[in-house]
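Example record for the data management plan.
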Amino acid sequence: MLADGLRYKSKVSGSPFTAATSFGAATMSCFLCGKHRARSLMVTRKILGKSQAVCSPSCKAADEAAS
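Corresponding structural encoding:
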């Protein structure tokens, strides 16, 4: 941290989670594990009365497949 309280002098614009050109390539965070994955690797499940995006088929299986 700098003396004037700033954490950085300049910042790269944009976000690492920007939407890609195709809908399936965009990322979303899993409601259960919180990791960002491509939408094409997720499914929706009804959790607490609302549809939420979660890893498919499970968070553990998605982690193993990514390794």
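Summary line stored alongside the record: The first strand starts at residue 27 and ends at 29.
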